[in-house]
Design goal:
Layout lengths: L1 H6 L4 E3 L2 E3 L4 E4 L2 E4 L5 H20 L1 H22 L14 H15 L8 H7 L4 H17 L5 H4 L15 H4 L17 H4 L1 H12 L8 H18 L1
Antiparallel strand pairs: 1-2, 3-4
Helix pairs in contact: 2-3, 2-4, 3-4, 4-5, 6-10, 6-11
Length: about 240
């Protein structure tokens, strides 16, 4: 699929001047490539984050833990959270460089050695792994859609079972379930209308159904994903 997309030419001619398509564009600090690959974007984020971590680590002992935590949050974690919903439904190996950034950040904050096990450090800092960070963002966007705080262009991508007359009397309608569109290609699973439904419909929705309109949804969702991530990792 990526090869087919990269081979498509959409050059246009205006006043005999040919305008060729660009192989990459930047939108909201996210790099989008013609073949819909995000590997280069992840690579760019990794380079920037490791650059800041090296600078912070060089003065870590003078800063102390509190100041180091704030700097890492502002300069590193914010970049991992920014627009990370576009990384949904990727193969596990693709966002793995971002997970390595989290490990390096935890070592920097807690000032632990490179060879020490980093999972306890991430648990102590109450940091979500990259996969759970992406699920958190997707669930949060869906939650905003349900309470009417999401932009119209996001709300229009999601269809609730209650909006379909033939399903209005079903249990899925009363549970605020979302309709997952069918896809014929693997890349279709990365569409927001598909990826946003998956974490909400599988486990999070079952456990957090009564919190759909709770003001403390964000903290409870993070606690739920944190418990699920580290419980699985410690089994």
């Amino acid at each position: 699929m990526a090869r087919q997309l990269s081979s498509v030419s959409s050059a246009i001619t205006i006043n005999r001047n040919a305008i060729n398509p660009s192989s990459v564009v930047r939108d909201l600090a996210v790099l989008f490539y013609a073949e819909l690959s995000v590997r280069q974007h992840i690579s760019r984020v990794s380079q920037t984050c490791f650059f800041h971590l090296r600078r912070i680590r060089s003065v870590r002992r003078q800063l102390g833990r509190d100041v180091t935590t704030k700097l890492v949050t502002i300069l590193v974690l914010s970049r991992l959270d920014h627009c990370n919903a576009v990384l949904a439904s990727l193969p596990a190996t693709t966002p793995s460089p971002l997970q390595r950034i989290l490990h390096a950040a935890a070592r920097t904050v807690l000032d632990i050695k490179l060879g020490d096990h980093v999972t306890p450090a991430s648990r102590e800092l109450h940091w979500l792994p990259i996969t759970e960070k992406i699920q958190y963002k997707l669930c949060l966007l869906v939650h905003k859609m349900f309470i009417g705080h999401a932009p119209d262009y996001i709300a229009s991508l999601l269809v609730s079972a209650s909006d379909i007359p033939s399903r209005s009397s079903l249990r899925s309608s009363s549970n605020c379930d979302l309709i997952i569109p069918r896809t014929t290609l693997k890349i279709g699973d990365r569409a927001f209308s598909v990826a946003a439904c998956t974490p909400c419909l599988e486990s999070a929705a079952d456990r957090l159904e009564d919190l759909a309109f709770d003001a403390s949804f964000k903290s409870k969702l993070k606690s739920f994903l944190f418990h699920a991530a580290y419980t699985v990792n410690t089994v």
